[in-house]
Amino acid sequence: MKFIYPAIFRQDTDGLYHGYFPDLDDCLSTGETLDDAIENANEAACNWLSVELEEGGHLPPVSDPSDLTLKEGEIIRNIAANIRLFEGYDE
């Protein structure tokens, strides 16, 4: 199943990129480049969503990117996380 959540990225003074998901508590990523941070965000979102689904949690609603307020220097990207649902998930 594919889930798409917005992530917000910014570059710090040391040049590293940091990302977070407004909808996924404590789901963060870092990378030396924006592409690295996006790739790491994808992995972080997959892990976060997998754990939530395994524990029977409810996934948070997805924010509309146009509703999010960005600070100066921040950019937003939609991150697609493909999760393979486990057998018996729907039972």
Automatic annotation (TrEMBL):
Protein name: Type II toxin-antitoxin system HicB family antitoxin
Higher taxonomy: Bacteria, Bacillati, Bacillota, Clostridia, Lachnospirales
Pfam families: HicB_lk_antitox
Domain HicB-like antitoxin of toxin-antitoxin system residues, every copy: 5-64
